[in-house]
Specification:
This protein is α+β, with helices and mostly antiparallel strands and 225 residues long. It has a single domain, classed as M1 Pyruvate Kinase, Domain 3. Helix content is 23%, strand content 21%. The protein is built from five helices and ten strands, in the order ββββαβββααβββαα. An eight-stranded mixed β-sheet has the order 2-1-5-4-8-7-6-10. Pfam families: MOSC (PF03473). InterPro entries: Benzoxazolinone_Detox_Enz (IPR052353), MoCF_Sase_C (IPR005302), Pyrv_Knase-like_insert_dom_sf (IPR011037). One of its GO terms (molecular function) is catalytic activity. This is Molybdenum cofactor biosysynthesis protein.
Length: 225
């Protein structure tokens, strides 16, 4: 199967079932035609999302350079559709890019993907939040999603341009350190003692995730006395 973009998805501001005083853009919908992908800049004072027209509700925890674009596998949406016994349309998990034939969850931190004229670099795993839980309306959703361990990948924009459904996805640089998105997910959820292992990614560890590792190390040092 050829790796391709099934859909490019953006969200508009809607009521947030988890936080009434803060709208959310988690319910994303496919866009017909090309969508501009850009470097959004910092979370504070930046553009929020890396996709033009995509709304970010909580700029403290979402969007910005290291979370400019969120990619998720269509095959994984199909898994959850079967598990939950309902349709899971593209964009339902808040992803900007729904991909098929591409091992999103096998990506390594620092991998570089080409989609048309756009270059994207893998930065982190998606850590599920309360808004995601509320939008899914599934009892025990965060636990089930975490146990599954296939989070999708956040990406930064190296070269801007436009993307659209149907474009091929190409892996143009494979990081050699072996630290994967799945490792980052486990270290930030179920196996937090493994956070220091993420430092093996070296320069491929994005600034945001590096700060989290350093915070975890300081907390561990305080606990050990």
């Amino acid at each position: 199967m050829t790796a391709r973009v099934e859909s490019v998805n953006v969200g508009r501001a809607e009521a947030n079932p988890a936080r009434r005083n803060r709208p959310t853009g988690i319910r994303k919908r496919p866009v017909d035609g090309p969508v501009q992908v850009r470097e959004p800049g910092p979370r504070r004072g930046g553009l929020g999302s890396g996709l033009a027209g995509d709304f970010i509700g909580d700029g403290k925890y979402h969007g910005g350079t290291d979370q400019a674009v969120y990619a998720f596998a269509r095959e994984e949406l199909d898994f959850w559709a079967q598990e939950l016994g309902r349709e899971i349309p593209d964009g339902s998990f808040g992803e900007n890019l729904t991909l098929s034939g591409f091992d999103v969850d096998g990506a390594r931190l620092g991998d570089v993907w080409r989609i048309g004229e756009v270059l994207l670099q893998v930065t982190d795993a998606r850590i599920p939040c309360g808004t995601f839980r509320a939008s899914m309306e599934v009892r025990g959703w965060l636990r089930r999603f975490t146990e599954r361990g296939r989070s999708g990948a956040y990406l930064k924009v190296l070269s801007p341009g436009t993307v659209r459904a149907g474009l091929p996805v190409e892996l143009v640089r494979r990081a050699g350190h072996g630290v994967g998105v799945a490792d980052a997910f486990r270290a930030q959820t179920t196996d937090r003692e493994r956070m220091p292992e993420l430092l093996r990614a070296g320069e491929d560890l994005c600034e945001q995730l590096r700060r989290r590792v350093e915070e975890a190390q300081r907390a561990a040092a305080r606990r050990s006395g």
